[in-house]
TrEMBL record:
PANTHER family: RAB FAMILY, SMALL GTPASE SUPERFAMILY, P-LOOP CONTAINING NUCLEOSIDE TRIPHOSPHATE HYDROLASE-RELATED
GO aspect biological process, one term: protein transport
SUPFAM superfamilies according to UniProt: P-loop containing nucleoside triphosphate hydrolases
CDD domains according to UniProt: Rab7
One GO cellular component term noted in the UniProt record for this chain: vacuolar membrane
Protein name: Ras-related protein Rab7
A Pfam family assignment: Ras
Amino acid sequence: MDISHKKRTLLKVILLGDSGVGKTSLMNQYVYRKFSQHYKATIGADFVTKELQVDDKLVTLQIWDTAGQERFNSLGAAFYRGADCCVLVYDVNAHKTFDTLNNWHDEFIKQADLNDHEAFPFVLLGNKVDVDGGNSRKVTEKKAREWCASRGNLPYFETSAKEGYNVEEAFLNVAKIASENE
Ligand code: GTP
Ligand code: MG
């Protein structure tokens, strides 16, 4: 199909979650199909772009990777304005990273100055499901889905940035719901 003449949509996507949950790794797996064991904390925020087709539309995802170490509001409200989707990430093996999801979610709503936060597309990713064959898991899928239900039925994906498991699927869903929100 020739889609070259079609309108391109730029979608701004923001990754949030505690330090070490795998935000940078998920982005690198999705965009470059690369994974590194080596942990290098993200400083500030930076984006990469990826083009993909959603139904008959060509979209450009502008994926903003943020630093889990920094206090949330250090990026400033201007950073969050114009976002089309917020991807919250936690580590299924670290309960604390699940407990802080409320803070990330609330802070995003506050900072992004959303007109209608109930309609705004959030997606939750439970990452590192590969670790120890699932034996060191601390947060059950059921618990995660309950949290999603309590926050307005957010879509939920369990992922492994290491193995590339469910990463494409998750970002395709992100692109879909972000473009519907446009
Ligand atoms: P900050 O930049 O500090 O906010 O952290 P981050 O969320 O970007 O985490 P990052 O992607 O840097 O990953 C942290 C560590 O976890 C790294 O050592 C990664 O190799 C590792 N890691 C990330 N995702 C996975 C995964 O799915 N499975 C496994 N086994 N390790 C992972
Ligand atoms: Mg990072």
